[in-house]
Amino acid sequence: MSLIVQKYGGSSVADAESIKRVAKRIVQTRKAGNDVVVAVSAMGDTTDELLDLAHEVAPLPSPRELDMLLTAGERISMALLAMAIESLGQEARSFTGSQAGMITDAQHGAARIVDVTHKRVQEALDDGAIAIVAGFQGFNRVTGDITTLGRGGSDTTAVALAAALGAEVCEIYTDVDGVFTADPRVVPRAQKIERVTSEEMLELAASGAKVLYIRAVEYARRHGVTLHVRSSFNNSEGTIVFNPAAPGQDENGDPVEEPIIAGVAHDLSEAKITVVGVPDIPGKAAQIFNIVAKSGANIDMIVQNVSAAATGLTDISFTLPKSDAQAALTALTSERDAVGFTALQHDDQIGKLSLIGAGMRTNVGVSAALFTALYEAGINIEMISTSEIRISVVTRADTIQEAVRAVHTAFGLDGEAEAIVHAGTGR
Q: Which of 169, 262, 265, 415 is the most buried (most CB within 10 A)?
């Protein structure tokens, strides 16, 4: 008997009919001879609606009370799903994050899992029941408070359970048929990827691909969990995210020929800050980025211009989440005299395009093909960043979709048929 962990997102349990459809799938998995643990998200847009409600009653709600509020969404889903499963003749037990042993640090709104004490979940499995766990939430032992894991927390919950329980696979159910070579809402002929390495998936997630969240992929990679991303709206095989034994090998150590390009991702959630007129002397970059770090901002790309010979000044540009920009600007402004820069520029109308593929390591001409495709599409590049398996560029937000389509076509990734997004969200 195998143990399978399944995760269902908000679009998969959006209403009563969806919950009953998901219950049937879970029961089928159980009847096939598998133990089943399920992590479930809040129904539909429940979390967003609760956030809106919180800000209606309090402009700055307490992080502790906000976590108490938001965890209600998953508790509703888990109980309803357990009821639906029991109506089909199978025993099910629902557990909150704390009951399931999801132990976290004390950071409200973005807690990190530090331990999984899964005794009650294991007892349910030993008794022949299906265990339903509320995703996105945990418990801090020191404070005794309920915590939430942040966006994508249900994915992380599922992966953590799979790692702790030694599951054969962690199935992430969503409203698309797997991981695609690009966002199918932007590139209609994007193709489903059959298999992708965890390394490539990390880069895709970090670069804006929304089907999996980076923290969940990171956790799966660290703990050797195999992910299977698939649709809850049909029975099609999805995308396997595996941990290769070594570059150029599959998970069993057998040689494989890696595709040059796994996919094209894009991200419109970042802004760019340029620190203008920085004295080009040792230590100034360190000073700037220490200030930004203390503001809590998470920096992505960095570019420093060549200093002007006449002035000895340079410009430093970096990208960061739009939500972090104001804090970084405020922190830098307060230290302007100490750093000695001339001005700050803030641009929140940028888009990032990333080309990802493990095959880049051994194939030449990838950069040339990328920049040629963007040039022929009339797309101007503002920043460039690379890693061993990724090339990212920043361009204007209003040209990013055109850029994604051009690059996707240039690398021969277009498929014959249009991809289907069953519920419209791509999650």
A: 262
